[in-house]
Amino acid sequence: MAALTHIAISELHPSFSHPRVAGIIIGKTDVKSFPDRKNVGVDRFTFSFSVKDSPDFFINVSAWGSDGYVNGLSNSFRTGDCVIIENPLVTNKDPEKGDRYCPTTPSLYRLLVSEAHSQVCLCADVGTIDRLLPLIHLPVKDSRDFYSLADIVANGQTLDGTVINILAAVKSIGELKQFTTSDRREGQRLEVKLFDDSVSSFPLVCWDREAIQLVQTLIPRETVLFISDAKISFDSFRSGMTATVNSKTIITVNPDTREASLLFSYAKEVSESGALDRDEKPEDVPVDSITDVYTVSQLKQKAQENPEAFFGISYSFVSRLDLDSSVSKVIKARCSRCKFLVTEDAQSCSNASCPGRDQALLAATGFDLLVDFTDHTGTLQACSLRSPVAEKTLGCTTEEFTRLTDDERTVMKWKFLLERCKIYVKIVPSPKQRSGTRGVVLDCSLADPGEVKQHMSALLQQP
Predict the structure, then answer these.
(1) CB within 10 Å: which end of the chain, N or C, has fewer?
(2) Which helix (H) or strand (E) covers residue 70, if one does?
């Protein structure tokens, strides 16, 4: 029955005595400190969070106090938790001061909590929690009020400095980078790559620890975000637009909206088709520019530590090369528009997200192999070897291959199988693989023994 004593956010008023509010945390800022004007040499600490208790209402809450109180309170809950706020001070919003840097709320008021008078604790009432949890998936803005990534790119610098809403899927989550500012403050930065059905990659930058902790829990290619009040800027280094999470931003994960559901379906289809992997610009790196040599275990370790695509050279044995399988397993047809696997007699592409699905099929036929590479440290499984790299490696075209006898294909297979090769490989994140990564062969040839000895000796001498 305790839930009956909660006051709805929509009904709060400064005249209320000892109000009690239940809500779900939908946003939270980092703790900051300021010099206390009344006590020289003493700092005051503060942070803010936003609480929602119904589909249409949420309110900002600020906590002020000592280092121990504010940091302890901040560490006691996170975004997505249901909390009870006891005896906050209900005060009018001040658009010219603190509220200028907080999310825009429908409430006329804000709440202040302090160590002496207030308490914030996790909600333990199951009924209240069940009522509040679905609210985390409702955007705080109109679900139709957003820019597509193509709209942002098309508007370009005219959007520089503006704050807008974005609906997009998560493509990849970058590596957390720590740094120290000129005034010796510790900072951090993390970049997320977004995509939708109009743009294949767009950067979202996070500087706040709270925002970084939230996005680090997301699953790339399986998560859609509604980002309210993201700041748009022109990045002169990239010569393009970027979005940044700021103190006004609220990120809604996997929104319960029609628009988000459609984008989620698109993201799933385009991810399964492999089109996102092939769309990465790093694949255009010239082979001659790749110089870093790795063992198989080093490739795997770096892939776990670095969610971004990277390149390397491996001197490994080819331990799997199924050239003597049926021709249909070696040579396959893919849609020229989206790279989805198709049958040669198909009239149109079966990929629902293909931009030319309603048009006549344009297909390209080529080698489409999965190969394994093994060295003394382990095996890199199911690496993609496709045309035209496969044609260069095998020394024959698909037409020539189809004319080979079974014995001739076996001879070709054993030319490479269990032979030491010099393999240029790109490692990309791939949630579909058990290892979480996928290898793409950029070049493969039989290795020179002297070159192998030189590089392997160097690798063995590493700690």
Answers:
(1) C
(2) helix 67-75
CB 87 within 8 A of CB 118: yes
Extract the tokens encoding 112.
Answer: 């202040």
3-state SS class at 434: coil
The residue count for the chain: 463
Report the predicted TM-score, pTM, of the whole model to 2 decimal places.
0.62
Count of CB atoms situated within 10 Å of the CB of 326? 8
Distance CA 18, CA 121 (A): 15
371 and 416 Cβ atoms separated by less than 8 Å: no
CA–CA gap between residue 337 and residue 125 (Å, rounded): 53
pLDDT (tens place) for every residue of the chain, 463 residues total: 344 588 999 999 998 888 999 999 999 999 998 887 777 778 889 999 999 999 999 999 999 999 999 999 999 999 999 999 999 999 998 877 767 789 999 999 999 999 999 999 999 999 999 999 999 999 999 999 999 998 898 888 888 889 999 999 999 998 888 877 666 778 889 999 999 988 888 999 999 999 999 999 999 999 999 999 999 998 776 678 899 999 999 999 999 999 999 999 989 888 877 766 655 544 456 788 889 999 999 998 888 877 678 899 999 999 999 898 888 889 888 876 667 788 767 777 777 666 666 677 777 788 889 999 999 899 998 898 988 888 889 988 888 888 888 889 999 999 888 889 999 999 886 655 666 678 899 999 998 888 888 877 766 666 5
Nearest CA to 89 out of 12, 23, 32, 30 is that of 12
> Going by C-beta distance under 8 Å and a sequence separation of 6 or more, which residues neighbour residue 226?
139, 141, 143, 146, 165, 166, 167, 251, 252, 255, 257, 260
